Amino acid sequence: MQEALRFQSADAEPVDRADIVVQARQLRRGSEGATRGLSLTIRGLRKAFGDNEVLRGIDLHIPPGQFVAIVGRSGCGKSTLLRLIAGLDAPTAGSFAFGEQPRAQDVRVMLQEPRLLPWARVLSNVEVGLGRERSSADAQARAERALVEVGLGDKRGQWPSVLSGGQKQRVALARALVSQPRVLAFDEPLGALDALTRISMQQLLERVWRDQGFTAILVTHDVAEAVALADRVLVIEDGRIAQDVTIDLPRPRRRGSAELAALEGEILKHLLEGSEDTQ
Amino acid sequence: MSLIDSLPRRKAFSSEVDAGSREENASKQKSGAPFRSDRNGSSSSAPKLPKVDGLIPWIVPLAIVLIWQLACVTGYVPSRVLPAPTDVAQAGWKLLLSGELVRNIWVSFWRASIGFVIGGGIGFAFGLANGLSQLSAKLTDTTLQMVRNIPHLALIPLVILWFGIDESAKLFLVALGVFFPIYLNTLHGIRTVDPQLIEMGRIYGMTDGELFRRVIFPGALPSIFVGLRFALGIMWLTLIVAETIAASSGLGYMAMQAREFMLIDVVVLSILIYALLGKLADSASRALERLTLSWHPAFQKK
Protein backbone atom coordinates (compact mmCIF):
# COMPACT_ATOMS: atom_id res chain seq x y z
CA MET A 1 0.00 0.00 0.00
CA GLN A 2 2.77 2.44 0.87
CA GLU A 3 4.70 1.39 -2.20
CA ALA A 4 1.65 1.80 -4.31
CA LEU A 5 0.88 5.28 -3.19
CA ARG A 6 3.51 7.93 -3.59
CA PHE A 7 2.42 11.46 -3.05
CA GLN A 8 4.44 14.25 -4.44
CA SER A 9 4.02 17.93 -3.89
CA ALA A 10 3.00 19.99 -6.88
CA ASP A 11 6.26 21.89 -6.92
CA ALA A 12 8.44 18.82 -7.07
CA GLU A 13 9.53 17.66 -10.50
CA PRO A 14 7.32 14.68 -11.22
CA VAL A 15 8.89 13.90 -14.55
CA ASP A 16 11.71 11.51 -13.71
CA ARG A 17 9.84 9.62 -11.08
CA ALA A 18 6.91 8.79 -13.33
CA ASP A 19 9.24 7.69 -16.07
CA ILE A 20 10.90 5.16 -13.81
CA VAL A 21 7.60 3.74 -12.72
CA VAL A 22 6.40 3.28 -16.25
CA GLN A 23 9.65 1.71 -17.33
CA ALA A 24 9.32 -0.70 -14.45
CA ARG A 25 5.77 -1.48 -15.41
CA GLN A 26 6.73 -2.09 -18.99
CA LEU A 27 9.50 -4.40 -17.86
CA ARG A 28 6.95 -6.34 -15.87
CA ARG A 29 4.64 -6.52 -18.85
CA GLY A 30 7.61 -7.92 -20.74
CA SER A 31 6.44 -9.84 -23.76
CA GLU A 32 3.34 -7.69 -24.21
CA GLY A 33 5.44 -5.71 -26.63
CA ALA A 34 6.58 -2.15 -27.16
CA THR A 35 4.03 0.60 -26.90
CA ARG A 36 2.97 2.59 -29.96
CA GLY A 37 2.04 5.54 -27.78
CA LEU A 38 3.63 8.94 -27.97
CA SER A 39 5.16 10.71 -25.02
CA LEU A 40 3.89 14.15 -24.17
CA THR A 41 5.76 16.94 -22.45
CA ILE A 42 3.98 20.08 -21.32
CA ARG A 43 5.86 23.18 -20.14
CA GLY A 44 4.36 26.22 -18.46
CA LEU A 45 0.99 25.76 -20.13
CA ARG A 46 -1.49 28.57 -19.51
CA LYS A 47 -4.94 29.17 -20.85
CA ALA A 48 -7.15 32.16 -20.19
CA PHE A 49 -10.62 32.97 -21.45
CA GLY A 50 -10.70 36.76 -21.22
CA ASP A 51 -9.82 37.67 -17.64
CA ASN A 52 -10.53 34.19 -16.38
CA GLU A 53 -7.30 32.24 -16.15
CA VAL A 54 -8.28 28.59 -16.20
CA LEU A 55 -4.85 26.95 -16.39
CA ARG A 56 -2.05 28.65 -14.48
CA GLY A 57 1.10 26.92 -15.52
CA ILE A 58 1.00 23.17 -16.04
CA ASP A 59 4.24 21.21 -16.21
CA LEU A 60 3.81 17.59 -17.03
CA HIS A 61 5.55 14.72 -18.71
CA ILE A 62 3.58 11.69 -19.82
CA PRO A 63 5.74 8.75 -20.92
CA PRO A 64 4.65 6.77 -23.99
CA GLY A 65 1.86 4.31 -23.38
CA GLN A 66 0.94 5.55 -19.93
CA PHE A 67 -2.69 5.69 -18.80
CA VAL A 68 -3.12 9.02 -17.04
CA ALA A 69 -6.32 10.07 -15.32
CA ILE A 70 -7.00 13.72 -14.59
CA VAL A 71 -9.44 14.41 -11.77
CA GLY A 72 -10.62 17.55 -10.09
CA ARG A 73 -13.72 19.41 -9.12
CA SER A 74 -15.79 20.93 -11.91
CA GLY A 75 -14.37 24.16 -13.24
CA CYS A 76 -10.81 23.25 -12.22
CA GLY A 77 -9.62 23.32 -15.81
CA LYS A 78 -9.27 19.60 -16.45
CA SER A 79 -11.41 19.62 -19.58
CA THR A 80 -9.60 22.70 -20.83
CA LEU A 81 -6.30 20.87 -20.45
CA LEU A 82 -7.65 17.99 -22.45
CA ARG A 83 -8.96 20.24 -25.21
CA LEU A 84 -5.53 21.84 -25.48
CA ILE A 85 -3.83 18.44 -25.70
CA ALA A 86 -6.31 17.33 -28.36
CA GLY A 87 -5.68 20.51 -30.32
CA LEU A 88 -9.26 21.76 -30.05
CA ASP A 89 -8.12 25.04 -28.47
CA ALA A 90 -4.89 27.02 -28.62
CA PRO A 91 -2.96 27.74 -25.39
CA THR A 92 -2.43 31.30 -24.18
CA ALA A 93 1.16 30.55 -23.19
CA GLY A 94 3.48 27.61 -22.79
CA SER A 95 4.19 24.67 -25.02
CA PHE A 96 3.48 21.03 -25.39
CA ALA A 97 5.47 18.60 -27.42
CA PHE A 98 4.83 15.02 -28.41
CA GLY A 99 7.69 12.52 -28.62
CA GLU A 100 7.42 12.66 -32.39
CA GLN A 101 5.57 15.06 -34.60
CA PRO A 102 2.14 13.39 -34.73
CA ARG A 103 0.05 13.11 -37.83
CA ALA A 104 -3.52 14.39 -37.54
CA GLN A 105 -4.95 10.91 -36.99
CA ASP A 106 -2.36 10.07 -34.30
CA VAL A 107 -4.15 12.16 -31.68
CA ARG A 108 -7.81 11.40 -31.15
CA VAL A 109 -10.33 12.57 -28.62
CA MET A 110 -13.50 10.99 -27.28
CA LEU A 111 -16.01 13.28 -25.65
CA GLN A 112 -18.87 12.90 -23.22
CA GLU A 113 -21.45 13.03 -26.00
CA PRO A 114 -20.98 10.43 -28.71
CA ARG A 115 -21.58 13.05 -31.45
CA LEU A 116 -22.51 10.48 -34.07
CA LEU A 117 -23.92 11.67 -37.37
CA PRO A 118 -27.59 10.65 -37.09
CA TRP A 119 -27.91 10.40 -40.89
CA ALA A 120 -25.01 7.99 -41.32
CA ARG A 121 -25.15 4.28 -40.55
CA VAL A 122 -22.98 3.01 -37.72
CA LEU A 123 -20.26 1.81 -40.09
CA SER A 124 -20.02 5.15 -41.93
CA ASN A 125 -19.83 6.90 -38.57
CA VAL A 126 -16.80 4.80 -37.71
CA GLU A 127 -15.27 5.51 -41.12
CA VAL A 128 -15.38 9.22 -40.28
CA GLY A 129 -12.62 8.46 -37.75
CA LEU A 130 -10.16 7.56 -40.50
CA GLY A 131 -9.64 11.23 -41.28
CA ARG A 132 -7.86 11.73 -44.56
CA GLU A 133 -7.65 7.99 -45.13
CA ARG A 134 -11.45 7.78 -45.47
CA SER A 135 -11.24 7.29 -49.20
CA SER A 136 -8.63 4.52 -49.07
CA ALA A 137 -9.61 1.10 -50.34
CA ASP A 138 -9.48 -0.67 -46.99
CA ALA A 139 -11.46 2.02 -45.14
CA GLN A 140 -14.52 -0.18 -44.75
CA ALA A 141 -12.55 -3.19 -43.59
CA ARG A 142 -10.74 -1.12 -40.98
CA ALA A 143 -14.00 0.38 -39.75
CA GLU A 144 -15.48 -3.09 -39.44
CA ARG A 145 -12.48 -4.28 -37.43
CA ALA A 146 -12.84 -1.33 -35.07
CA LEU A 147 -16.54 -2.08 -34.63
CA VAL A 148 -15.80 -5.72 -33.85
CA GLU A 149 -13.22 -4.58 -31.33
CA VAL A 150 -15.84 -2.67 -29.34
CA GLY A 151 -18.27 -5.58 -29.68
CA LEU A 152 -20.71 -3.98 -32.11
CA GLY A 153 -19.87 -5.87 -35.29
CA ASP A 154 -23.53 -6.81 -35.77
CA LYS A 155 -24.75 -3.20 -35.57
CA ARG A 156 -22.86 -1.93 -38.61
CA GLY A 157 -25.97 -1.25 -40.70
CA GLN A 158 -28.07 0.39 -37.98
CA TRP A 159 -28.98 4.04 -37.61
CA PRO A 160 -27.47 5.63 -34.49
CA SER A 161 -30.95 6.58 -33.24
CA VAL A 162 -31.82 2.96 -32.48
CA LEU A 163 -28.74 2.36 -30.31
CA SER A 164 -28.65 2.68 -26.54
CA GLY A 165 -26.48 5.32 -24.84
CA GLY A 166 -23.74 2.83 -24.08
CA GLN A 167 -23.77 1.46 -27.62
CA LYS A 168 -23.52 4.96 -29.09
CA GLN A 169 -20.51 5.63 -26.89
CA ARG A 170 -18.93 2.38 -28.06
CA VAL A 171 -19.42 3.48 -31.67
CA ALA A 172 -17.73 6.76 -30.74
CA LEU A 173 -14.88 4.73 -29.24
CA ALA A 174 -14.58 2.67 -32.42
CA ARG A 175 -14.49 5.92 -34.42
CA ALA A 176 -11.66 7.20 -32.21
CA LEU A 177 -9.78 3.89 -32.46
CA VAL A 178 -10.12 3.21 -36.17
CA SER A 179 -7.19 5.41 -37.18
CA GLN A 180 -5.04 3.58 -34.59
CA PRO A 181 -4.14 6.72 -32.66
CA ARG A 182 -0.99 6.99 -30.61
CA VAL A 183 -2.56 9.37 -28.11
CA LEU A 184 -6.20 9.02 -27.13
CA ALA A 185 -7.79 11.66 -24.91
CA PHE A 186 -11.08 10.98 -23.15
CA ASP A 187 -13.22 13.78 -21.77
CA GLU A 188 -15.67 12.20 -19.32
CA PRO A 189 -16.54 9.57 -21.92
CA LEU A 190 -18.68 7.60 -19.47
CA GLY A 191 -20.23 10.56 -17.67
CA ALA A 192 -23.70 10.11 -19.12
CA LEU A 193 -23.94 6.33 -18.70
CA ASP A 194 -25.65 4.31 -15.99
CA ALA A 195 -23.55 2.54 -13.37
CA LEU A 196 -23.53 -0.95 -14.90
CA THR A 197 -22.82 0.29 -18.41
CA ARG A 198 -20.02 2.41 -16.98
CA ILE A 199 -18.28 -0.59 -15.48
CA SER A 200 -18.41 -2.63 -18.68
CA MET A 201 -17.24 0.43 -20.64
CA GLN A 202 -14.32 0.89 -18.22
CA GLN A 203 -13.30 -2.70 -18.83
CA LEU A 204 -13.58 -2.12 -22.56
CA LEU A 205 -11.40 1.01 -22.36
CA GLU A 206 -8.77 -0.86 -20.36
CA ARG A 207 -8.77 -3.75 -22.80
CA VAL A 208 -8.34 -1.64 -25.95
CA TRP A 209 -5.64 0.40 -24.21
CA ARG A 210 -3.72 -2.79 -23.38
CA ASP A 211 -4.26 -4.16 -26.90
CA GLN A 212 -3.27 -1.06 -28.80
CA GLY A 213 -0.75 0.53 -26.46
CA PHE A 214 -1.68 4.17 -27.06
CA THR A 215 -1.03 6.88 -24.52
CA ALA A 216 -4.35 7.41 -22.75
CA ILE A 217 -5.41 10.62 -21.04
CA LEU A 218 -8.71 10.32 -19.22
CA VAL A 219 -10.50 13.29 -17.72
CA THR A 220 -13.08 12.21 -15.17
CA HIS A 221 -14.83 13.43 -12.06
CA ASP A 222 -15.13 9.88 -10.78
CA VAL A 223 -12.11 9.12 -8.57
CA ALA A 224 -13.02 5.43 -8.35
CA GLU A 225 -12.91 5.22 -12.15
CA ALA A 226 -9.56 7.03 -12.19
CA VAL A 227 -7.86 4.68 -9.72
CA ALA A 228 -9.37 1.60 -11.33
CA LEU A 229 -8.06 2.43 -14.80
CA ALA A 230 -5.01 4.65 -14.60
CA ASP A 231 -1.29 4.18 -14.01
CA ARG A 232 -1.20 7.66 -12.61
CA VAL A 233 -3.78 10.10 -11.32
CA LEU A 234 -3.30 13.84 -11.57
CA VAL A 235 -5.39 16.03 -9.33
CA ILE A 236 -5.91 19.52 -10.71
CA GLU A 237 -6.85 22.37 -8.46
CA ASP A 238 -7.03 26.06 -9.30
CA GLY A 239 -5.45 25.49 -12.69
CA ARG A 240 -2.40 23.68 -11.34
CA ILE A 241 -1.44 20.07 -10.73
CA ALA A 242 -2.01 19.71 -7.01
CA GLN A 243 -1.24 16.03 -6.70
CA ASP A 244 0.45 13.40 -8.82
CA VAL A 245 -0.35 9.90 -7.62
CA THR A 246 1.19 6.82 -9.13
CA ILE A 247 -0.99 3.75 -8.97
CA ASP A 248 1.12 0.70 -9.25
CA LEU A 249 -1.43 -2.01 -8.71
CA PRO A 250 -1.33 -5.08 -10.94
CA ARG A 251 -3.92 -5.47 -13.67
CA PRO A 252 -6.60 -6.63 -14.05
CA ARG A 253 -7.63 -4.76 -10.95
CA ARG A 254 -10.40 -6.18 -8.86
CA ARG A 255 -13.19 -3.67 -8.52
CA GLY A 256 -13.97 -2.82 -4.91
CA SER A 257 -10.66 -4.19 -3.57
CA ALA A 258 -9.25 -2.69 -0.37
CA GLU A 259 -6.23 -1.15 -2.11
CA LEU A 260 -8.35 0.66 -4.68
CA ALA A 261 -10.72 1.88 -2.00
CA ALA A 262 -7.83 3.17 0.11
CA LEU A 263 -6.31 5.03 -2.84
CA GLU A 264 -9.67 6.49 -3.74
CA GLY A 265 -10.17 7.59 -0.15
CA GLU A 266 -6.79 9.36 -0.03
CA ILE A 267 -7.44 11.28 -3.22
CA LEU A 268 -10.99 12.17 -2.26
CA LYS A 269 -9.78 13.36 1.15
CA HIS A 270 -7.29 15.64 -0.54
CA LEU A 271 -9.93 16.97 -2.94
CA LEU A 272 -12.38 17.65 -0.14
CA GLU A 273 -9.75 19.34 2.03
CA GLY A 274 -8.91 21.51 -0.92
CA SER A 275 -12.51 22.53 -1.28
CA GLU A 276 -12.72 23.42 2.43
CA ASP A 277 -9.64 25.60 2.08
CA THR A 278 -11.13 27.62 -0.69
CA GLN A 279 -14.49 28.13 0.93
CA MET B 1 -96.44 36.79 -43.35
CA SER B 2 -95.46 34.57 -46.22
CA LEU B 3 -91.90 34.59 -44.90
CA ILE B 4 -92.97 33.30 -41.51
CA ASP B 5 -95.16 30.83 -43.24
CA SER B 6 -92.44 29.46 -45.39
CA LEU B 7 -89.84 29.18 -42.69
CA PRO B 8 -91.20 26.25 -40.68
CA ARG B 9 -92.19 24.49 -43.88
CA ARG B 10 -88.66 24.73 -45.24
CA LYS B 11 -87.31 23.60 -41.95
CA ALA B 12 -89.56 20.59 -41.89
CA PHE B 13 -88.63 19.82 -45.44
CA SER B 14 -84.94 20.03 -44.76
CA SER B 15 -85.11 17.79 -41.72
CA GLU B 16 -87.05 15.27 -43.77
CA VAL B 17 -84.38 15.34 -46.41
CA ASP B 18 -81.74 15.08 -43.78
CA ALA B 19 -83.26 11.96 -42.39
CA GLY B 20 -83.74 10.58 -45.86
CA SER B 21 -80.22 11.33 -46.93
CA ARG B 22 -78.84 9.78 -43.81
CA GLU B 23 -80.73 6.59 -44.51
CA GLU B 24 -79.65 6.53 -48.10
CA ASN B 25 -76.17 7.39 -47.05
CA ALA B 26 -76.09 4.47 -44.69
CA SER B 27 -77.33 2.09 -47.34
CA LYS B 28 -74.78 3.38 -49.83
CA GLN B 29 -71.99 2.91 -47.37
CA LYS B 30 -73.21 -0.60 -46.76
CA SER B 31 -73.15 -1.31 -50.44
CA GLY B 32 -69.76 0.38 -50.69
CA ALA B 33 -68.17 -1.68 -47.96
CA PRO B 34 -68.35 -5.12 -49.58
CA PHE B 35 -67.01 -3.59 -52.76
CA ARG B 36 -63.91 -2.37 -50.92
CA SER B 37 -63.27 -5.58 -49.07
CA ASP B 38 -63.88 -7.40 -52.34
CA ARG B 39 -61.04 -5.55 -53.96
CA ASN B 40 -58.79 -6.37 -51.06
CA GLY B 41 -59.76 -9.99 -51.20
CA SER B 42 -59.21 -10.34 -54.91
CA SER B 43 -55.73 -8.82 -55.00
CA SER B 44 -54.27 -10.77 -52.08
CA SER B 45 -55.71 -12.22 -48.92
CA ALA B 46 -52.75 -12.22 -46.52
CA PRO B 47 -51.60 -8.59 -46.01
CA LYS B 48 -55.03 -7.08 -45.53
CA LEU B 49 -54.26 -4.65 -42.75
CA PRO B 50 -51.87 -2.19 -44.42
CA LYS B 51 -54.25 -1.77 -47.38
CA VAL B 52 -57.18 -0.89 -45.14
CA ASP B 53 -54.80 1.45 -43.34
CA GLY B 54 -53.96 3.16 -46.61
CA LEU B 55 -57.66 3.69 -47.36
CA ILE B 56 -58.46 5.40 -44.08
CA PRO B 57 -57.38 8.90 -45.23
CA TRP B 58 -59.82 8.63 -48.14
CA ILE B 59 -62.87 7.86 -46.04
CA VAL B 60 -63.64 11.51 -45.28
CA PRO B 61 -63.24 12.82 -48.87
CA LEU B 62 -65.37 9.95 -50.17
CA ALA B 63 -68.03 10.59 -47.57
CA ILE B 64 -68.10 14.27 -48.49
CA VAL B 65 -68.58 13.39 -52.16
CA LEU B 66 -71.36 11.00 -51.25
CA ILE B 67 -73.18 13.52 -49.10
CA TRP B 68 -72.71 16.13 -51.80
CA GLN B 69 -74.17 13.80 -54.40
CA LEU B 70 -77.16 13.03 -52.19
CA ALA B 71 -77.75 16.68 -51.42
CA CYS B 72 -77.83 17.46 -55.15
CA VAL B 73 -79.92 14.47 -56.20
CA THR B 74 -82.55 15.21 -53.61
CA GLY B 75 -82.63 18.82 -54.73
CA TYR B 76 -81.60 20.16 -51.33
CA VAL B 77 -78.81 22.02 -53.08
CA PRO B 78 -79.94 23.54 -56.39
CA SER B 79 -77.71 22.61 -59.27
CA ARG B 80 -77.31 26.30 -60.06
CA VAL B 81 -75.42 26.67 -56.74
CA LEU B 82 -73.47 23.45 -56.83
CA PRO B 83 -73.67 20.78 -59.53
CA ALA B 84 -73.70 17.14 -58.47
CA PRO B 85 -70.41 15.24 -58.54
CA THR B 86 -71.76 13.16 -61.40
CA ASP B 87 -72.36 16.32 -63.42
CA VAL B 88 -68.85 17.48 -62.65
CA ALA B 89 -67.50 14.12 -63.70
CA GLN B 90 -69.50 14.33 -66.91
CA ALA B 91 -68.11 17.79 -67.63
CA GLY B 92 -64.65 16.45 -66.92
CA TRP B 93 -65.18 13.53 -69.29
CA LYS B 94 -66.35 15.88 -72.05
CA LEU B 95 -63.37 18.17 -71.60
CA LEU B 96 -61.08 15.18 -71.48
CA LEU B 97 -62.43 13.91 -74.80
CA SER B 98 -62.02 17.30 -76.43
CA GLY B 99 -58.43 17.43 -75.17
CA GLU B 100 -59.01 20.78 -73.55
CA LEU B 101 -58.61 19.47 -70.02
CA VAL B 102 -55.30 17.74 -70.62
CA ARG B 103 -53.93 20.76 -72.41
CA ASN B 104 -54.91 23.14 -69.63
CA ILE B 105 -53.61 20.88 -66.89
CA TRP B 106 -50.37 20.46 -68.76
CA VAL B 107 -49.97 24.23 -69.22
CA SER B 108 -50.62 24.85 -65.51
CA PHE B 109 -48.33 22.03 -64.44
CA TRP B 110 -45.58 23.32 -66.70
CA ARG B 111 -45.90 26.86 -65.34
CA ALA B 112 -45.90 25.61 -61.77
CA SER B 113 -42.83 23.43 -62.22
CA ILE B 114 -40.72 25.95 -64.14
CA GLY B 115 -41.61 28.74 -61.74
CA PHE B 116 -40.89 26.46 -58.81
CA VAL B 117 -37.52 25.38 -60.16
CA ILE B 118 -36.45 28.96 -60.84
CA GLY B 119 -37.68 30.48 -57.57
CA GLY B 120 -36.78 27.46 -55.44
CA GLY B 121 -33.35 27.23 -57.01
CA ILE B 122 -32.54 30.87 -56.33
CA GLY B 123 -34.00 30.65 -52.82
CA PHE B 124 -31.97 27.53 -52.08
CA ALA B 125 -28.80 29.16 -53.39
CA PHE B 126 -29.33 32.25 -51.25
CA GLY B 127 -30.18 30.09 -48.24
CA LEU B 128 -26.95 28.13 -48.64
CA ALA B 129 -24.84 31.23 -49.24
CA ASN B 130 -26.27 33.16 -46.30
CA GLY B 131 -26.16 30.15 -44.00
CA LEU B 132 -22.53 29.42 -44.75
CA SER B 133 -21.07 32.88 -45.23
CA GLN B 134 -21.40 35.73 -42.76
CA LEU B 135 -20.46 38.24 -45.45
CA SER B 136 -23.17 37.05 -47.81
CA ALA B 137 -25.73 37.12 -45.00
CA LYS B 138 -24.82 40.65 -43.98
CA LEU B 139 -24.92 41.78 -47.58
CA THR B 140 -28.27 40.35 -48.67
CA ASP B 141 -30.37 39.20 -45.72
CA THR B 142 -31.78 42.62 -44.77
CA THR B 143 -32.83 43.30 -48.35
CA LEU B 144 -34.45 39.90 -48.70
CA GLN B 145 -36.35 40.32 -45.44
CA MET B 146 -37.72 43.64 -46.67
CA VAL B 147 -38.83 42.17 -49.98
CA ARG B 148 -40.33 39.20 -48.14
CA ASN B 149 -42.81 41.44 -46.37
CA ILE B 150 -44.39 42.59 -49.62
CA PRO B 151 -47.24 40.19 -50.46
CA HIS B 152 -46.11 38.87 -53.81
CA LEU B 153 -49.64 38.89 -55.18
CA ALA B 154 -49.70 42.66 -54.62
CA LEU B 155 -47.26 42.86 -57.51
CA ILE B 156 -49.82 41.55 -59.99
CA PRO B 157 -50.71 44.99 -61.46
CA LEU B 158 -47.04 45.78 -61.86
CA VAL B 159 -46.31 42.36 -63.30
CA ILE B 160 -49.09 42.76 -65.88
CA LEU B 161 -47.64 46.13 -66.87
CA TRP B 162 -44.16 44.64 -67.18
CA PHE B 163 -44.87 41.30 -68.80
CA GLY B 164 -48.43 41.64 -70.10
CA ILE B 165 -50.33 38.36 -69.75
CA ASP B 166 -47.37 36.49 -71.12
CA GLU B 167 -45.98 33.24 -69.68
CA SER B 168 -43.18 35.15 -68.00
CA ALA B 169 -45.68 37.00 -65.79
CA LYS B 170 -46.94 33.75 -64.26
CA LEU B 171 -43.46 32.28 -63.94
CA PHE B 172 -42.26 35.45 -62.25
CA LEU B 173 -45.05 35.37 -59.68
CA VAL B 174 -44.67 31.67 -58.92
CA ALA B 175 -40.90 32.00 -58.62
CA LEU B 176 -41.27 34.95 -56.27
CA GLY B 177 -43.83 33.07 -54.20
CA VAL B 178 -41.77 29.92 -53.69
CA PHE B 179 -38.50 31.80 -53.20
CA PHE B 180 -39.08 32.85 -49.60
CA PRO B 181 -40.20 29.64 -47.90
CA ILE B 182 -37.30 27.79 -49.50
CA TYR B 183 -34.83 30.55 -48.66
CA LEU B 184 -35.92 30.95 -45.04
CA ASN B 185 -36.04 27.25 -44.25
CA THR B 186 -32.74 26.44 -45.94
CA LEU B 187 -31.10 29.26 -44.01
CA HIS B 188 -32.70 28.15 -40.75
CA GLY B 189 -31.73 24.53 -41.36
CA ILE B 190 -28.09 25.39 -41.92
CA ARG B 191 -27.93 27.76 -38.97
CA THR B 192 -29.35 25.17 -36.60
CA VAL B 193 -27.08 22.24 -37.47
CA ASP B 194 -25.68 20.93 -34.19
CA PRO B 195 -22.39 22.84 -33.63
CA GLN B 196 -21.07 19.82 -31.72
CA LEU B 197 -21.32 17.75 -34.90
CA ILE B 198 -19.52 20.44 -36.86
CA GLU B 199 -16.75 20.47 -34.26
CA MET B 200 -16.61 16.68 -34.48
CA GLY B 201 -16.20 16.93 -38.24
CA ARG B 202 -13.34 19.37 -37.81
CA ILE B 203 -11.66 17.16 -35.18
CA TYR B 204 -11.69 14.30 -37.67
CA GLY B 205 -10.11 16.45 -40.33
CA MET B 206 -13.03 16.99 -42.71
CA THR B 207 -12.38 19.54 -45.43
CA ASP B 208 -14.96 22.30 -45.94
CA GLY B 209 -16.53 20.42 -48.84
CA GLU B 210 -16.74 17.20 -46.89
CA LEU B 211 -18.11 18.99 -43.85
CA PHE B 212 -20.87 20.42 -46.01
CA ARG B 213 -21.65 17.14 -47.72
CA ARG B 214 -21.53 14.89 -44.69
CA VAL B 215 -22.63 17.13 -41.82
CA ILE B 216 -24.20 20.47 -42.74
CA PHE B 217 -26.41 19.53 -45.68
CA PRO B 218 -27.89 16.35 -44.16
CA GLY B 219 -28.44 18.27 -40.93
CA ALA B 220 -30.32 21.02 -42.74
CA LEU B 221 -32.38 18.64 -44.86
CA PRO B 222 -35.41 18.21 -42.55
CA SER B 223 -35.84 21.97 -42.43
CA ILE B 224 -35.36 22.27 -46.20
CA PHE B 225 -38.21 19.82 -46.67
CA VAL B 226 -40.49 21.90 -44.50
CA GLY B 227 -39.71 24.81 -46.81
CA LEU B 228 -40.33 22.64 -49.85
CA ARG B 229 -43.80 21.67 -48.69
CA PHE B 230 -44.70 25.24 -47.81
CA ALA B 231 -43.45 26.34 -51.21
CA LEU B 232 -45.55 23.75 -53.02
CA GLY B 233 -48.68 25.12 -51.40
CA ILE B 234 -47.76 28.68 -52.29
CA MET B 235 -46.89 27.56 -55.82
CA TRP B 236 -50.49 26.43 -56.55
CA LEU B 237 -52.00 29.40 -54.77
CA THR B 238 -49.99 31.88 -56.80
CA LEU B 239 -50.68 30.10 -60.04
CA ILE B 240 -54.43 30.01 -59.48
CA VAL B 241 -54.56 33.72 -58.78
CA ALA B 242 -52.28 34.59 -61.67
CA GLU B 243 -54.18 32.42 -64.15
CA THR B 244 -57.54 33.69 -62.95
CA ILE B 245 -56.59 37.30 -63.44
CA ALA B 246 -54.48 37.27 -66.55
CA ALA B 247 -54.11 34.24 -68.76
CA SER B 248 -55.21 32.75 -72.05
CA SER B 249 -54.72 29.11 -71.07
CA GLY B 250 -54.38 26.93 -68.01
CA LEU B 251 -56.72 25.69 -65.32
CA GLY B 252 -57.44 29.10 -63.85
CA TYR B 253 -58.28 30.42 -67.30
CA MET B 254 -60.53 27.43 -67.91
CA ALA B 255 -62.43 28.22 -64.72
CA MET B 256 -62.80 31.90 -65.60
CA GLN B 257 -64.02 31.06 -69.11
CA ALA B 258 -66.57 28.66 -67.66
CA ARG B 259 -67.83 31.35 -65.33
CA GLU B 260 -68.47 33.61 -68.32
CA PHE B 261 -70.75 30.96 -69.81
CA MET B 262 -72.27 29.93 -66.45
CA LEU B 263 -70.72 26.45 -66.77
CA ILE B 264 -70.62 25.94 -63.04
CA ASP B 265 -69.71 22.25 -63.35
CA VAL B 266 -66.46 23.21 -65.12
CA VAL B 267 -65.69 25.77 -62.41
CA VAL B 268 -66.12 23.12 -59.74
CA LEU B 269 -64.10 20.67 -61.83
CA SER B 270 -61.10 23.02 -61.98
CA ILE B 271 -61.27 23.60 -58.24
CA LEU B 272 -61.25 19.85 -57.64
CA ILE B 273 -58.32 19.40 -59.98
CA TYR B 274 -56.39 21.99 -58.02
CA ALA B 275 -57.07 20.00 -54.86
CA LEU B 276 -55.83 16.82 -56.50
CA LEU B 277 -52.71 18.46 -57.94
CA GLY B 278 -51.91 19.96 -54.56
CA LYS B 279 -52.29 16.59 -52.90
CA LEU B 280 -50.11 15.03 -55.59
CA ALA B 281 -47.32 17.55 -55.04
CA ASP B 282 -47.51 17.03 -51.29
CA SER B 283 -47.39 13.26 -51.64
CA ALA B 284 -44.39 13.52 -53.93
CA SER B 285 -42.48 15.65 -51.47
CA ARG B 286 -43.39 13.31 -48.63
CA ALA B 287 -42.16 10.33 -50.58
CA LEU B 288 -38.91 12.18 -51.19
CA GLU B 289 -38.74 12.97 -47.48
CA ARG B 290 -39.17 9.35 -46.51
CA LEU B 291 -36.49 8.38 -48.98
CA THR B 292 -33.86 10.86 -47.82
CA LEU B 293 -34.69 11.11 -44.13
CA SER B 294 -34.91 7.40 -43.38
CA TRP B 295 -32.35 7.96 -40.61
CA HIS B 296 -34.74 10.27 -38.78
CA PRO B 297 -36.61 8.62 -35.88
CA ALA B 298 -39.83 10.28 -37.09
CA PHE B 299 -39.64 8.40 -40.39
CA GLN B 300 -38.67 5.00 -39.06
CA LYS B 301 -41.30 2.31 -39.11
CA LYS B 302 -42.25 1.09 -35.70
Q: What gross morphology of chain B would you assign? A: globular
Amount of beta strand of chain A:
15-25%
- What structural category do the secondary elements of chain B indicate? mainly alpha
The percent of residues in helical segments of chain B reads over 70%
Oligomer: heterodimer
CATH top-level class of the largest domain in chain A: Alpha Beta
Going by helix content, strand content and strand pairing, the class of chain A is alpha/beta
Return Rg of chain A in Å: 19 Å
General shape of chain A = globular
Whole-number tally of structural domains of chain A: 2
What is the CATH superfamily of the largest domain in chain B?
MetI-like
**Tally of strands of chain A:** 10
Q: Segments of chain A where pLDDT lies below 50 for 5+ residues?
A: 1-18, 21-33
Question: Would you mind describing this structure in some detail?
Answer:
- The complex is a heterodimer of chains A (279) and B (302).
- Chain A has 279 residues and is an alpha/beta fold.
- Chain A folds into 2 domains: 1-88 and 183-279, Rossmann fold (3-Layer(aba) Sandwich), CATH 3.40.50; 103-181.
- Chain A is 36% helix and 22% strand.
- Chain A is built from 8 helices and 10 strands.
- Chain A has helices spanning 15-29, 78-85, 122-128, 139-149, 165-177, 195-212, 223-229, 258-278, and strands spanning 5-6, 40-49, 52-62, 67-71, 93-98, 107-110, 183-187, 215-219, 232-237, 240-247.
- In chain A, the strands form 2 sheets. Chain A has a 7-stranded mixed β-sheet, with helices on both faces.
- In chain A, α4 (139-149) crosses α5 and α7 (223-229) packs across α8.
- With 302 residues, chain B is mainly alpha-helical.
- Chain B has 2 domains: 2-77, no CATH class; 95-293, Orthogonal Bundle (MetI-like fold), CATH 1.10.3720.
- Chain B has helices spanning 2-43, 48-73, 85-98, 100-132, 134-148, 156-163, 167-191, 195-203, 208-245, 251-260, 264-292.
- Mean pLDDT of chain B is 82; it is low at 1-47.
- The chains are: A alpha/beta (279), B mainly alpha (302).
- At the A-B interface, loops of A face α8 and α9 of B.
